[in-house]
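ARCHIVE CARD
Drawer: 12
Card no.: 0347
Subject: one protein chain, sequence and derived structure
Cross-reference: see card 0346
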Amino acid sequence: MPATQIQHELVEKKLASADVESSAAEVHGLLCGLLCAGRNDSLELWFAELLPEATDGDLLLEECRQTLRRLHDETRQAIEGPNLGFSPLLPDERTSLRRRAEAVSDWSQGFLYGVGLSGVSRQRQLSQNAREALQDLTDITRVDLAALSDDDEEDEEALMQLMEFLWVAATLIHDDLLNDSGPVHDGH
């Protein structure tokens, strides 16, 4: 899985400076959910969810918009490319295990929200594998973060498997939704 060019820490800083309360991982998960569901209006829908209307002279908000626009473009290109070649935007391995696990949970929550925001519901005809992937992502949002230890190699290995699973789940859902009915239009 190729790394996203924009770094997690930069997105975190830009979101905080624009008073966006969501984490970078959650924001990226939301974007990936929209893109994997095939939303043609993903940038507009994403911005509407995250950022207040622009106010003249708010340079921090504009800087955040520019960073997020770049993240959108990179992520969209990766998702639309061969083999769904994106990586979830998560903190690097120097970050504590608990913080990385929280980011995995946040990314999953954002992804689920993005899929739901796209108009995909449980009633839609999804394959059994895609329904299971959505349920697994829901389960990841409920990980007991307090039980994790930075010194536990089993916890580290489990987290690495969850991080890999995010890509697998996104791929399953992307393939299922786009092969089922083609891209989701913007509803106009």
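Annotation on reverse: The chain is about 60% helix and 0% strand. The CA atoms of residues 41 and 186 lie 5 Å apart.
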